Amino acid sequence: DAKTTQPNSMESNEEEPVHLPCNHSTISGTDYIHWYRQLPSQGPEYVIHGLTSNVNNRMASLAIAEDRKSSTLILHRATLRDAAVYYCILLYSGGGADGLTFGKGTHLIIQP
Amino acid sequence: ETGVTQSPTHLIKTRGQQVTLRCSSQSGHNTVSWYQQALGQGPQFIFQYYREEENGRGNFPPRFSGLQFPNYSSELNVNALELDDSALYLCASSLGLREYYEQYFGPGTRLTVT
Q: Could you say which DSSP state residue A57 is in?
């Protein structure tokens, strides 16, 4: 499976934008890029996913590099509720998708 | 729309015993995946069920087994419990097997093995 690399932790201030990077240099042309987050004492929560084009939803934006070797999750205006561990995950699109492979993720700290 | 639910919330078992954990998938979802999350680690994939058949399995021994019922709810069974099985067990449901379907997670069952 293609692997992802994320910083162990990042810190940001409330109401400011946050850019969470993810490197996936061995990504194949058919891998989807998914982001999940896990708030303290909760199960993981889906955030966003994409294949080649940038994506937006009500929670966040996903910016994918042209060569697809990296991506950035953008939280446009962080709140204290966004403090969580964020996981960048690749899913093979060959059909019959398997489970998610979680790495260590990025622990996002939001300062009031 | 009811989300993914799991029972029980917490459980304490003794080494060598057997345990059954339960998961009700979100309405309309036919795929359930189970994960084990040790303290301070990311979730690890155990196995996945699609329409009552096991579709894929992670690196877990055969004493971890599962079942999916016609209503797509699921069970995780662990035999011969070991101390290292102490963890948060998460289930997640999705609309199907395609890689662009998001998985919806339950709150988990905290298992402690003494």
A: -
Tens of pLDDT, residue by residue over B48-71, are 999 999 988 999 999 999 999 999
Of A68, A76, A72, A69, the C-alpha closest to A88 is A72
Search chain A and give the residue with CA nearest B103.
A46
Please, how many CA atoms are within 13 Å of residue B63, restricted to the half-sphere of its CB? 10
| Residue B97 and residue B31 in contact, taking contact as beta carbons nearer than 8 Å | yes
Where residue B52 falls (left for φ over 0; alpha for ψ -120 to 50; beta otherwise) is left
- Interfacial residues of A (vs B; Cβ cutoff 8 Å): 32, 34, 36, 42-46, 49, 51, 85, 87, 91-93, 95-105
With bands split at pLDDT 50, 70 and 90, how would you rate the model's confidence at B96?
confident
